[in-house]
UniProtKB/TrEMBL annotation:
Species of the source: Marinomonas spartinae
Membrane-spanning residues: 12-38
GO cellular component terms, semicolon-separated: plasma membrane
Keywords: Cell membrane, Membrane, Protein transport, Transmembrane, Transmembrane helix, Transport
Protein name (Swiss-Prot/TrEMBL): Biopolymer transport protein ExbD
Superkingdom to which the source organism belongs: Bacteria
Length: 136
């Protein structure tokens, strides 16, 4: 008697390596996109150079940006000089160790920088820093 070979059933399996490749591609893509988008927020400034600049930790900071044409921003949002104190006082109520960092363009008049710092000191803010970039 003749025996017939029964076809073997193929077992299905999932190829995971191409799926991992696609996920890595998406992860790298979104990281690169997010790195290019974040610095585009706010006023574009050319910071003054300093040979002894310190790196500040990014916690508990409020960033004031002084731009050309009397532009003023708090944490990337336009604000008037009158409203900035109210906003900073609200931030200080939430965080007692608030550090104010002033970003200022090279071409800004020193008197404007001094008047903002005087306004902040007169309102009780003690920790004020000026952002610079390393001279390299």
């Amino acid at each position: 008697m003749r025996s017939w070979n029964e076809p073997t059933k193929k077992r299905l399996h999932i190829e995971i390596i191409p799926m991992i490749d696609v996920m890595m591609f998406l992860l790298v893509f979104f990281i690169l996109i997010s790195l290019n988008v974040i610095p585009a927020l706010g006023i574009k400034t050319s910071l003054p150079e300093s040979g002894h600049a310190q790196v500040l930790k990014p916690q508990n900071n409020a960033i004031i940006t002084l731009g050309k044409n009397d532009r003023l921003q708090l944490d990337g949002k336009d604000i008037s000089k009158i409203k900035i104190l109210d906003s900073l006082k609200q931030l200080k109520e939430k965080n007692k160790n608030l550090v104010i960092i002033i970003r200022c363009d090279k071409g800004i008049d020193v008197q404007r920088l001094v008047s903002i710092m005087d306004l902040l000191k007169g309102s009780g803010f003690k920790s004020i820093s000026i952002a610079t970039k390393n001279k390299n």
